[in-house]
């Protein structure tokens, strides 16, 4: 009797194990495919066939698939951003040394302070009158090892003394400061130095401007509220002459401020954070304008400008059709400003294509071509997704002539890198077609 009961128990256990193994297999496959970025396809199950399918439901389904594809691409984009400027090109020994020093300081804080004081002593008139000029190699070493805002301030003070008593510190010194400050999440320091280069003697090239622009857009992308609010307190914050977060169509008075606060609360908009984010974007606009000093035609660089449009779009979620941003009256000016920037970017890209000059490519030493083209592809992808949502009819040049942002920006990407251009088209074209069909 006992053997029969034991046999029945074994059969029941075996049956449960078979069912459990069959149900657990898809779960293991699903977890594995999720880690690899794929979606597990469940076996087809026969279902009653519908007599007809609504075109509206098909459009909604297609739009949902595109949105899901956007989310997956954004995750891949964030992964790529981590190592975009994590290391510099190994084409020159100087660039490789700056890469290692930008990750971690090679000297202690006490030794760094001692080196600063020694360098300051070497700038005394008594030493200079003897013909003993301080070495720029030492200043660049210090620039590659600064950590705190106070250390950067001390370093810039030495640069201003050097500029006044010896001369310019050159482009390489500007790159060292830009790369180090951006890696320490202080790109505003480098921007202020470039804006006042006649005081500090730090020259810049397109690579230095690009690494600072990347540092600013990353600060927005991290969405660290405390960090963004602190950025607004850094010296050199642009003064906003026009309130982009104002209420449209209302009168002036104390009631408007309360109305704006009520709208912000309804749309869950953090007004202090939004204003601090706008101050960072304003810094990015100032930096992009510096590229006109490096152009023979005094035209703005489309690569640097593409960072600005991306910053507006991703910060305020302007490329999401179902986002609260589209119905928020406080963002009306933001949409208008972004439309104008997309038009400016398109016109700048047209000039760059017609002049047959690849943006930001000449004289590259630290940033590789693949890094540059990948950054441009990410920026243009964000811009074109915004164009898909807004439609192409509202973009015009300074003379009121209609522009074609999609075709022009595709050509710009192809001019820079054909392989990245193909990837851009594959990601953006389904999105454009889905919104055109709605």
Short description:
With 438 residues, this protein is mainly alpha-helical. It has helices at residues 2-35, 55-81, 93-103, 109-122, 125-129, 136-143, 149-165, 170-183, 187-195, 197-200, 206-222, 225-233, 254-266, 271-290, 302-315, 332-354, 369-390, 405-416, 418-436. The chain has a domain at 253-357 and 366-438.
What does this structure look like?
The chain has 438 residues and is mostly helical. It has a domain of 178 residues. The protein contains 19 helices and no strands. α11 packs antiparallel against α14 and α18 packs antiparallel against α19. The longest helix is centred in the N-terminal third of the chain and has 34 residues. The termini are far apart.
Helix content: 55-70%
> Roughly what is the average pLDDT, rounded to an integer?
77
- The count of helical stretches stands at 19
Instruction: Determine the N-to-C terminus distance.
Output: 72 Å
* Total number of beta strands: 0
Topology as H/E string? HHHHHHHHHHHHHHHHHHH
Task: Determine Rg (CA atoms, Å).
Answer: 28 Å
Tell me the structural class.
Answer: mainly alpha
Beta fraction of the residues? under 5%
Note poorly predicted spans: 17-56, 59-85, 87-102, 248-253
Main β-sheet, in a few words? none
Overall 3D form: globular
């Amino acid at each position: 009797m006992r053997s029969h009961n034991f046999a029945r128990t074994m059969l029941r256990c075996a049956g449960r194990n078979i069912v459990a193994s069959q149900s657990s297999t898809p779960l293991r496959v699903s977890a594995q495919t999720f880690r690899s970025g794929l979606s597990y396809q469940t076996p087809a199950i026969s279902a009653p066939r519908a007599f007809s399918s609504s075109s509206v439901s098909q459009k909604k389904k297609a739009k949902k698939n595109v949105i899901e594809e956007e989310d997956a691409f954004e995750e891949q984009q964030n992964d790529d951003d981590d190592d975009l400027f994590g290391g510099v090109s190994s084409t020159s020994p100087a660039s490789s040394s700056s890469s290692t020093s930008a990750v971690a300081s090679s000297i202690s804080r006490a030794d760094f302070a001692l080196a600063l004081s020694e360098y300051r002593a070497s700038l005394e008139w008594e030493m200079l009158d003897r013909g003993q000029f301080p070495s720029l190699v030492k200043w660049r070493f210090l620039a590659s090892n600064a950590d705190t805002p106070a250390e950067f301030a001390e370093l810039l003070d030495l640069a201003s003394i050097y500029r006044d008593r010896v001369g310019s510190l050159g482009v390489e010194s500007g790159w060292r400061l830009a790369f180090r400050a951006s890696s320490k999440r202080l790109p505003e320091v480098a921007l202020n130095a470039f804006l006042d280069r006649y005081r500090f003697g730090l020259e810049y090239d397109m690579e230095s401007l690009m690494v600072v622009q990347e540092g600013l857009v990353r600060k927005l992308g991290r969405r660290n509220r405390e960090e963004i609010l602190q950025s607004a307190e850094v010296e050199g914050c642009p003064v906003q002459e026009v309130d982009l977060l104002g209420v449209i169509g209302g009168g002036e008075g104390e009631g408007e401020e309360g109305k704006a606060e009520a709208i912000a609360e309804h749309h869950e908009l953090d007004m202090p954070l939004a204003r601090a984010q706008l101050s960072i974007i304003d810094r990015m606009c100032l930096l992009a304008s510096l590229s006109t000093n490096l152009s023979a035609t005094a035209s703005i660089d489309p690569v640097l400008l593409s960072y600005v449009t991306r910053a507006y779009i991703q910060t305020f979620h302007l490329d999401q059709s179902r986002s609260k941003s589209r119905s928020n009256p406080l963002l009306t000016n933001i949409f208008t400003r972004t439309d104008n920037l997309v038009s400016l970017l398109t016109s700048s890209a047209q000039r760059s294509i017609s002049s047959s000059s690849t943006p930001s490519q000449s004289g590259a030493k630290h940033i590789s071509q693949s890094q540059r083209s990948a950054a441009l592809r990410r920026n243009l992808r964000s811009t074109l997704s915004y164009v898909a949502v807004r439609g192409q009819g509202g973009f015009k040049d300074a003379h009121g002539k209609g522009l074609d942002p999609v075709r022009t920006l595709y050509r710009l990407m192809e001019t820079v890198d054909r392989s990245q251009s193909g990837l851009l088209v594959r990601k953006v074209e389904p999105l454009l077609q889905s919104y055109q069909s709605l």
